[in-house]
Amino acid sequence: MSSCGAPAQTATLPANIDPGKEVVLSGRVLSSGAPVGGAFVRLLDSDGEFTAEVVSSEGGDFRFFAAPGSWTVRALHRSGNGEVSVSADGPGLHTLEVAVS
Predict the structure, then answer these.
(1) What is the pLDDT along the chain (101 residues), one digit of tens a residue?
(2) Within 13 Å, how many C-alpha atoms sit on residue 26's CB side?
(3) What is the pTM of this model?
């Protein structure tokens, strides 16, 4: 379990999640193509305001459930920082890669 109290992060969606009904932002934190575990991954809204945070799994995986809209996912790690923006206009699985350097 992460230090922020978030559920364990995995690449596989839980069985009770229907990406046809929810906005799911799921991805991996990478450095030089290798997974980065232990990164603090933050979800920021369209105004840049902090919304949520999880810690990436050993495999670099993270996941957020969000409302439709524009989001920024920012990863912070001792090896570097990175971010990616996503526009999630409606329900679905939105797959992201966040490179840190």
Answers:
(1) 334 455 556 556 566 666 667 899 999 999 999 999 999 999 999 999 999 999 999 999 999 999 999 999 999 999 999 999 999 999 999 999 999 99
(2) 17
(3) 0.83
Q: How far apart are CA 19 and CA 30, in angstroms?
A: 24
Residues 6+ apart with CB under 8 A from 49: none
* CA atoms within 13 A of residue 15's CA, in its CB half-sphere: 0
Q: Which domains does the chain have, with CATH numbers?
A: 23-99 (2.60.40.1120)
Calpha distance 31→48 (Å, rounded): 24
Number of neighbouring beta carbons within 10 Å of residue 24: 19
Q: What are the E-state strand segments in 1-101?
A: 23-31, 34-35, 40-44, 50-55, 61-66, 69-77, 80-88, 92-99
**Separation between Cα atoms, residue 58 and residue 9, nearest integer Å:** 9
